[in-house]
Amino acid sequence: MPRELGEGEASSSHSSGFLGKLSCSPVFEIVPGYNKNMTRFISGRGIGFAVAAILLISITSGYTQFLHVNQTTVALSFLLAILAVSAVWGMVVAIFMSFSAMLLFNYYFLPPVRTFTIADPQNWVALAAFLTTSIVGSQLSARIRKEADAAHNRRREVERLYSFSEKLLGEGNVIQLMNAIPNHIVDCFEAGAAELFVPQKDKFYRSGYGAAQIDEAKMKAAYVLDETNSDPTQLLHFVPVRLGVKPIGSLGISGAVLSRQMLDAIGSLVAIAMERARAVEQLSETEAERQGERLKSALLDSIAHDFRTPLTAIKAAATDLLASAGRDIEQQKELLAIVNEECDRLNHLVEEAAEMAKLESGEFELHLQPVGISTLVEAALSHLKKALGDRRIIVNANGDLPLVRADLDLAKDILVQLVDNANLYSKKEHPITITAEETGEMVTVSVADRGPGIDPFEQGLIFDKFYRGKDQRYQVRGTGMGLPIAKAIVTAHRGTISVTSQLNSGSVFSFTLPVALRSENR
Question: What residues pair up with 238 in beta bridges, in sequence order?
């Protein structure tokens, strides 16, 4: 006669040695970003036992009362349920469910049914195999879930670090970066507060809220001792900011669950970003110094060339007058005319330098009024009458153009500079064309010549102070201040200025002025 199993006999005879080697897996790890209420619900072990019992009862009642299947189907159903539970609630619940399923399988599905007696010795093997498979499968399922959660956490950490590095790269200078770092840490790592200590300035940079919770003495200690210190109970972290092996500051972070590797990575990214910002600033300062030296050289070159020419002519004329007292009146008048002309030229150079300084400093006031384009063109051509001589000027401007809102004297200077340039850099037999047209709420005025054109590389530089074309700087007199003056005046009028040019075909300089308001036209 078969006998009933004693309490605990089956487990001791078939699985005690195997179970003794098992180590219980931890409860399901909470992955950042899940709904907190849901994770709190499913991570409770008591809920796991309840779900396991419900599944066991459902499978048993379903196969005993509704569906009559073979023993293999029942065993596989139990095994599938055990694997699902172990994936969510870990090994403790899975082992409970495995033993319970084994007992239910024996009681309800192995003959004789509704007893714990096993008539066929092969069923002992089947029962042991079922228990072993369910426990091993549960362990593997829990391990896979744990590794998946770890991989998910690592991916989340990488994503956060990437987002953090992107934000660090978006900052401009060092001061802006240091002020922004704590806020970026709070945003990217879901921290409650963050603080940055920079020993060079002995200054703390805090996030917009919650920084009062962070102990600044511990931040200094993290920098001095060059070691990371975390308090998991209060979610406080103090991290040295290292550039290589040298600490250059420290971070304090509160309210965030961060691993040691994550903290080290944050400190390294902050150090690299600070060093990069310093390097960019130094490079900018070096570039500014280089540009300053270039401008100084250009100014000295301009002074040496453009001031020396009239001074030489004046000196020669004055010397000739002094050496030849017996010259006739006509010769003396000719020499005096040279002196007068070169003095005017010197005066013009000084006036341009003074005007450029005035425009750059902003020490001028616009007297805006409605001005007609025809009035503007006539004023400019009248000013250049002597310089243009009999040069042919073509004006294409419709009579129905709207008035522009401008300071007549300054706006006239824009056109004077452009027409004078066209006159200097193109042959006298070629005409200069002035065109005006309405473009939306602006009026665009263009000056076209048939000169040698401007190299594409130089088109972005000709509006810089003292810059003159490399092929023309010694052939045509000038200071390199005319176009910068025109640009400054146009900008003050809220307009734009540009150039379109093609080598050996000529250039077109265009500027815009705003249309006058209707109320101003009355």
Answer: 229, 252
